[in-house]
Task: structure prediction
Amino acid sequence: MLGLMQNQPLLISSLIEFAQRHHGDVEVVSRRVEGDIHRYTWADVSRRSHQVANALKGFGLDMGDRVATLAWNGYRHLELYFGVSGSGRVLHTVNPRLHPDQIAWILNHAQDKVMCFDMTFLPLIQAVHAKCPSVKHWIALCDADKLPADSGIPGLLSYEAWMSSQSTDFEWPDFDENSASSMCYTSGTTGNPKAVLYSHRSTILHAYAAALPDVMCLSARDSILPVVPMFHVNAWGLPYSAAMVGAKMVFPGPALDGKSIYELMENERVTFAAGVPTIWQMLLGHIQPDGLRFSTLKRTVIGGSACPPAMITAFNDIYGVEVLHAWGMTEMSPLGTLCTLKNKHLTLSKEEQMKIRLKQGRCIFGVDMKIVGDNGEELPHDGKTYGDLYVRGPWVVDDYYKPEGSNPLVKDARGRGWFPTGDVATIDADGYMQITDRSKDVIKSGGEWISSIDIENIAMAHPAIAMAACIGMKHPKWDERPIVAVVKKPGAEVSREELLAFYEGKTAKWQIPDDVVFVPAIPLGATGKMLKTKLRETLADYQLPGL
Ligand code: ADP
Result:
């Protein structure tokens, strides 16, 4: 027997309709590429996303056609989020930090028809446009008078000239909620990037989940600053969740330095911010020396890489800002787990609480996870046993768009598909998951695993260390031994011996790295993660001491 409730499809257009109707006067504030601050409201976002939809109709685009963006976090990008997906086209957010050849490869793979880009990326577009024949329309996200006369890009239009003359009347179409809404390519550290194609349904369910109290706890009383880019897994879904709850939105544009972010937080009374650890490192680097404080910031989600303990302590203990350590992936829309304490943890000592806060957190309703051993057997949730982390759920990838290999899912005995995340983790009895490593980065020494994240966290807790990367080096007796490559803070000094001594008592003796290598910088990939493969290349001639 079927239920007798209305079968209304879950569509992204319903979010902007809701925000316009119920929170139309709430502000959306953006720092623009031009450097000034732009402010308007959710009602304006709605009106202008109607104009985008009409302008796309004018191009004769079909449902499902891809519209690409190469853009910072800002109001025009937000209008495209709703105008493109809401009208049934697919928003393809491209990561400008990828190599130009990879960007050209991605645009061809996605067969994008339109490309909308911030003027910052004009040189990038000039380098790739001739290699991307599927793109018929190039649109610069700027005012008409900012368009260069001699860009070399045929038919280049300014966004404002293109869309602002369109009618503001538009009826969002109804269609199947499983239709594709947006796409994002993985960063491609292991071969060609892979395309993850989100649906309207997966996006709306993820937006609901993200707003829950034990997740990001978003509400109409929040002023949300997504520092995480809109070109990286839809800024962790924040534009959608913000529209769903009617929160104020604050966009940083291209200015991601500590000073600019701090000013925006203070001026726009930001209560909630989200970003990767490197961004927050820059922010702390700006406020700590001058003794500045946050007057409104209450919570910050930190994810994308492991959050160092020193950062959690600084935010929680010095500034009274709750750190929500989060884990996810492009293939998971991206949220998988978030670390919030349970009631029974509230009476624990600070040290005991810290042990929990360092974990990547517990599953959000909608994501199921397990750890498995080498033969696919399910491993116990005892907080000690490591295994490959598998996930499933309605916002987890089922397959890649135009896959180059076989389907990534692994079937269980009931025939259900699980996505192998490529992470190695433990899960404890309370359901808290802790990532030890990417499976390709795991260090095996004498048959035991050493967590490179643990080794990095200890180094990062040293006052002289800005960044640390731990990698395994071949060893004739132990198979592999860890070494740690570190970047010193400007003006700070520490010797190899002092840093090795710092490890004493903080980890088992056999897990202490065999060596410290001082490097000027750790190579980072397009999504801000350490590129250990590149680091290994730079250390090709390295020899472990005593060998
Ligand atoms: P995103 O960086 O948006 O989470 P990516 O798909 O680029 O998504 O990268 C996903 C990978 O990043 C995960 O599989 C994991 O290895 C790593 N990662 C994400 N969050 C964390 C975290 N909090 N701690 C450790 N690793 C993380």
Remarks:
- Residues 42-58 form the longest helix (17 residues).
